[in-house]
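Researcher: Please predict.
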Amino acid sequence: MKIMKSGLFYWGIILFSIHSVSSSLFAQESSKVLEFRKPAEQVLKKIADRILSETTYRFIDAETGKTYTSTKELPVKLSVKVESRYNDWHYTNGVLNIGMNELGKIAGEKQYNEFVDKNFDFVFTHGDLDYFRQLYDAQKKKDWNSVRQVNWHMLFRMVRLDDCGTLGASLIELYAKDSRKIYKEYIDLVAQHILHTEPRLPDGTISRYWPHECTIWADDLFMSVSFLARMGNLTGERKYYDDAIHQVKQYNKYLWDDEKKIFYHCYHTDSKQHGAAFWARANGWMFMAEADLLSVLPEDYPGRGDVLKIFVQQAEGLTRWQSENGLWHQLLDKNDSYLETSASAMVVFGFARGVNRGWLDQDYSYVAERGWEGILSHIDENGNVKNICVGTGIMPALSFYYKRPVESNIPMGEGPVLRAGGEILQMKKYYERPADASYDRIMKEAKEKK
């Protein structure tokens, strides 16, 4: 009996020591959270502040080099352009708007939210829209393709999701606090286009007439769902949520590869064939779309469970293809393709938001952390974001994707980086539970068995 008591006393001392060490380690890890967040916030502010400094709200005559704050009294000619890329009307600007809005709210820096407000105000309410409308109409009469030479042509064209989806989505966020009639009119036009005009398959799946008849592009899940999710949240109308859920399920059906656990870039419904590539940004677009939808769907909404299952399935697959430095390759399954920033940021955003909202196990915070560290290696001390794959269509050969050029400081990469960083700021740092933390449980169960 004495031996048993002394033995229990001995183990009690050991367990108390283990508990003390474990608690100390946990405290040390917790203290590192601020160290983890601080540099992330500094980097994000450098990127966002640089963008603010490069957004001029001016026009430039490319022939003369002269700049103007208004197009009023200027002769109507193609050489007049919007000076800053951040004042353009392009789907990538919509993604950047979303990123700036989220960062402003998370970091408490209202100037980033004002960036979005000022951009829409610059387009819609200063009278310059009429100038570019005249240019657009004149070019359209000559040659439909030549309208691309006109700034803001996507605003007038509205024949594809790229023209209106993400910009409409970010305008919804602004309209929720600034309910101008002109904003609502545009939002309603986008809703009408996506629900009734955008090409679809007989089963309701959004598709394109190019490069094959009714091709499904992974990119279009974000271009549509980013708007539909926010429109459902704004109006409370089920038709937007229901369509968004339907798109997620259909895109998963057509594009998912169950062997590699990732998505193809496209599916050609006429030939019943997938495209050649498991393009990284295609997977990033889909991951972000799923996360955006899950963020607004009520917990008990019909079909939410299906979206969550697809999101978790994709998270498991993407984890398999993360490189040793945390980034993802331009072609996910090809380690000899370059490491790409925009896709990596989209994926990190999805993982971090998934952990933050409880959709993913805390273990995935490790994947997000390593991914964020990789992204930081593509950002310099001045907040320049590098190695962003340029706009990319669909081609039937891997060589096309291998050779896509990269650029720095283009919104399709900056927006996702800001979104990823914003979620990283809110995410608890990964903490591996020490093995000895379970020893007390083992001893307790052993004692009970005796």
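Model: Confidence is low (pLDDT under 50) at residues 1-35.
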